[in-house]
Amino acid sequence: MPDAGGEPDRRTPGRPVDDLIQPFQLESGDDGEAKLSGRLARLGDAVDDLLNRHDYPEPVAELLGEALALGATLAGALKFDGIFTLQIQGDGPVSLLLADVQTKDGAERYVVRGYAKYDDEALAKHDPEESLLGEGYLALTVDQGKHTDRYQGMVEIVGNNLAECAQHYFRQSQQMDAAITLSAGRTGPDGAWRAGAIMVQRIADDPNIQLPSDDGDDTWRRVMMLMATGTETEMLDPALTAERYLFRLFHEEGVRVTDPRPVARGCRCSSDRVFNVLVQLPREDLHDLAVDGNLEVTCEFCSEIYSFTPEAVEARAAETAAEAANEQVPNPVIESPESPAR
What we know:
The chain has 342 residues and is of the alpha+beta class. It folds into two domains: 20-265, Hsp33 domain, CATH 3.55.30.10; 271-328, CBS domain Like (Alpha-Beta Complex). 31% of the residues lie in helices and 28% in strands. It has helices at 45-52, 58-76, 120-124, 162-174, 218-228, 232-236, 242-250, 271-279, 283-289, 310-328; strands at 20-26, 35-43, 83-90, 94-104, 109-118, 136-143, 151-156, 178-186, 193-203, 255-257, 261-265, 295-298, 305-308. Strand 6 (136-143) and strand 7 (151-156) form a beta hairpin. The termini are far apart.
């Protein structure tokens, strides 16, 4: 664990160096001030694999990369076991951003997926100084399964970028100060995609205590200034580990890290799931959707293509209907000879 004695080694044996969520704590601050905790997400192969499965224009891919890093960071800050979803819908050139993070092995690791919807014509006319998202809303959802209530928080899009929009969410929906920095880009003109995010939160020991405004908290303001010294090059540098980058930013604040959680790209689509969706469609729709005698469905998350024939889907639909009809037929009541006449 690094301390103020010097910058930690470039590699720490036994720890992942990429595709991770790195929790950390800042020990600075006077007694009575809120504690500062944070998460750093570093995505390498996970985001590169995901973005290369789509033919997104560079600005759209960059925005989705930021959304994936943000989603991983937010999910890593929550105590849950299930699916966390970050969704942004607006009227700008990018009408939808979706980042989906699923926990695995009791929230010991995370699997990310995501996609974006955009308008080519609107994107070509877009002013680079304006947000790609336009006006709309940001929603965060936590789904822990059918036996628990699903949580959702929603706020309007505020700010010129995704980080400002997320910070507004915490102020508006959670009444909590949170500082967020996002980066996404290639390692060169045609290099691999990478993405990163840092979030620092102020947390009071007593949830009933009203935290002071950031204007009255010297430690918070100092940490915000230190975060601003980080560069996109450092955030996306594959040779700069999460620990080392955090130490560069916050060594004077007594930064402490705990074990990171690994992140990987994945998708929950499958041939059976797609097939079961098609079975629910009317027969005439199946033939209208067929091309050259085949039904092809492309997953928006991973671009996997699933192909079926309308006949196979119809046959399965008939089997499903027959099974449902058999389940609805009541068992006959057989009266014994001793039963009284009715």
